[in-house]
Design a protein that fits this description.
By secondary structure, this protein is α+β, with helices and mostly antiparallel strands. It contains ten helices and 17 strands. A hairpin with a 3-residue loop joins strand 1 (about 5-10) and strand 2.
């Protein structure tokens, strides 16, 4: 009889995060969701990057790909996310030293709110990621893997740690603000019960923040700023040109980040959010970049540990509970 392996994957526009649990042991993976089609790729593959052969095409996935290859389409039903999710599965299985032939895979993955609420779209996305019940054949870093996914559960984005740490949330009301690469998803919860009418998505993700930064930095300092530059600038909090830090850029970047967070909060208020709940939770990788600004507006909110993994941890609990039910 085959053992059961449980996997939660949150494949966002910025990064793909995955957690595998097997016999009480967990393994994690995280890499950038950047995909570029290539031919006869001869470079050495660096950590958190993968050479992929899938469906008679070759790709480069991960950190080595330029920021200009980020996917900013709203749909998750795309080759980028399919390859990213399959790669995460293979990478997790490799880290756990497991063989596909000896296990049954149970997978929970993320879907935008609009997909999750629409039965037709959700079914289409589920079948797409299941590869229409066909065996998945993928070559990653010159290692071929064949596998089938026994069970796929579609989970909604923006749940944070609600189900991963249910004992902390079951008796409280809460708001989860999940700041992703492309969008920010908001949802209120009464205990563990989500208010589906409150589920809303804004376009104020980190991509929007970077676009504002590019415009302001270009206009203020008369410099060209590339997508790769922006990725470093938003992390460091300053612009460096010709080997010198531009001190004036620090306050400009801080103000843009503060205004961006205020836009998220104002959007929430326009959609009926009062923030009168017991817990206010910021999750997603974007919450790391805006941690200082969040503390200014919500001084009593404690940042999550590894907020980029928050949704993934809840997805993992959902698939475990569903299988045991």
């Amino acid at each position: 009889m085959k053992d059961h392996v449980f996997i939660g994957i949150d494949s966002g526009k910025f990064s793909t995060k995955g957690i595998l649990e097997y016999r009480g042991q967990t393994h994690t993976t995280i890499f950038r969701t950047k995909l570029q089609e290539t031919k006869e790729l001869g470079v050495d593959i660096q950590p958190n990057s993968f050479k992929i052969e899938y469906d008679s095409k070759q790709y480069l996935l991960g950190d080595m790909v330029s920021e200009e290859n980020c996917d900013n389409n709203l749909s998750k039903e795309s080759i980028v996310h399919k390859i990213a999710i399959y790669t995460a599965i293979v990478d997790l299985m490799k880290k756990a030293k497991l063989n596909f032939y000896n296990v049954q895979l149970h997978l929970a993955i993320n879907a935008p709110i609009n997909v999750y609420k629409n039965q037709k779209h959700k079914k289409s996305y589920k079948e797409f990621m299941e590869n229409y019940s066909r065996t998945i054949n993928i070559n990653i870093n010159d290692r071929i893997s064949f596998f089938k996914i026994n069970e796929v559960v579609i989970a909604f984005e923006g749940m944070g740690l609600i189900y991963a740490q249910s004992e902390d949330y079951s008796q409280l009301s809460s708001v989860v603000i999940d700041i992703g690469g492309l969008n920010t998803t908001l949802c209120t919860f009464n205990g563990l019960q989500p208010d589906f009418n409150s589920m809303t998505v804004s376009h104020f993700g980190i991509s929007s923040l970077k676009a504002k930064l590019e415009q302001e930095l270009t206009q203020t300092f008369n410099l060209n700023v590339s997508a790769n530059d922006l990725e470093q600038i938003v992390k460091r909090g300053y612009l460096s040109h010709a080997g010198q830090i531009n001190e004036e850029s620090k306050s400009l970047i801080t103000n843009i980040k503060r205004n961006h967070l205020n836009q998220i909060i104002n959007y929430a208020k326009l959609h009926g959010y009062t923030f009168n709940q017991d817990k206010i939770v910021f999750s997603g990788g974007g919450s790391i970049l805006l941690q200082k600004e969040i503390k200014e507006i919500f001084p009593n909110v404690s940042p999550l540990k590894d907020p980029q993994y928050a949704n993934t941890k809840s997805f993992l609990e959902i698939i475990k509970v569903k299988h045991s039910a």
